[in-house]
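### Sample
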Amino acid sequence: RRERQRFVDKNGRCNVQHGNLGGESSRYLSDFFTTLVDLKWRWNLLIFLLTYTVAWLVMASMWWGIAYLRGDLHQAHGDSYSPCVANVYNFPSAFLFFIETEATIGYGHRYITERCPEGIVLFLFQSLLGSVVDAFLIGCMFIKMSQPKKRAETLMFSRAAVISQRDAKLCLMFRVGNLRNSHMVSAQIRCKLIKSRQTPEGEFLPLDQCELDVGFGTGADQLFLVSPLTICHEINSESPFFCLSQRSLRSEQFEIVVILEGIVETTGMTCQARTSYTEDEVLWGHRFLPVMSLEDGFFRVDYSQFHATFEVPTPPYSVKE
């Protein structure tokens, strides 16, 4: 096996990093909400905690500042004196009053009086700001938790692809499966061949993408993914593997990227699963073992044989030959 750099890992992660953006990096701030959702969980949690902590400290400081400017901190809160906020003597008590107001706890010990217009204005500002911060951060966390990325982990691809004959035609095949009982609605599969090539004009294309036909004209690319399916690409005169033989496969260098898309039945969100096969992971003259068996009233899928293949007689020549 020749280890080399992959364009897409087996788990679907794309090995592409963007650099030297220059002034274009400001585009991330113009769509700050999406940027925040795309961050890793540890950064999301850090921003979540810092935002609330800073907002709480700033608002508590404003309540303490009002009490300080009015002299409420230095005067006894008796029956003859009406402070802006009752029972606020220092910063901790101002912070507790803000938390009680923001969380609508309402213990009743601290409350705002009607003789404090600046406090009423600050109370309205606090209510509006708290609603905006809650909607932004909680909405971001909810969207990040409901992203269907984890659903893609229960969509399986065979470790290797095979080339053998089916219906008297040489075909490239691989297997896909769904581990969950919930279905993928409108599931569709696509394949891209990534291979370096040089144009007749002398231009070198290091990662040229070519579409592999897996049944666009016949509708075979639309999957009813209830049980494992074998996806088939017929190697014919229009296929990029028209000149591929068993011998030339050893010297070729390419990567087949498989993209499976569908709508998650339980959430209604679009899910995408990806994997790739390099030339070392394409087995010539192999076929997948059956995984379906008929039991008492239902069909059973044996996933222990999902990746298993066996050799079959296959001509070592290309379709062109």
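The two ends are 27 Å apart (CA to CA). This sample (G protein-activated inward rectifier potassium channel 1) is used throughout the tutorial notebook.
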